[in-house]
Amino acid sequence: MKLSKEEKKFWQRHFRIDTLENIPTEMVGLTSIDTTDDDEYLFYLTQRVKVIPEIYLKGTLVTDEGVAHLSKIQELKELTLRDHKKVTKASIPYFNQMKNLERLNITLTKITLSDLCESLNNQSLKEVFLSSEENEKNIEEKAFIIKERLLNCNIYLDCCYTTDSFGNIEKPIF
């Protein structure tokens, strides 16, 4: 099997790999911060690399389509998609397909606590990190809903509405 012209260009540009034989099928992890990596990047990557335990993406151009590509990765335990304004609730079914996923960070995305309450149902999750603009009353109601469904999962909210007795902002954990 040969690499297409576009795929060969991808592997040369991003990984300095020239031949199909040199493309790894497994990676220890993948990190991309404030880059132009996008859905096409993840498409080509996931065509050849099948195992990546940890992926950390912050401020890239990845959208819901890229998350769909990531759902093909085996043994993915930690996924960070921080600061991705085009990652929406349409990605939640893909998170549900990631059967080894234990830690999910979707802070500063378009996914809300309400969205998670409606459709997140990945029983392997142990921690989810999420931004929230909701008030404390709404957070408490939704906390009960999601904790019933995901008994072994802690939800960490980056929220501006909760304060301690001294007026210091807290990040609620439920």
From TrEMBL:
InterPro entries given in the database record: LRR_dom_sf
Gene3D superfamilies per UniProt: Ribonuclease Inhibitor
Superkingdom field: Bacteria
Protein name per the record: Leucine-rich repeat domain-containing protein
Source organism: Aequorivita lipolytica
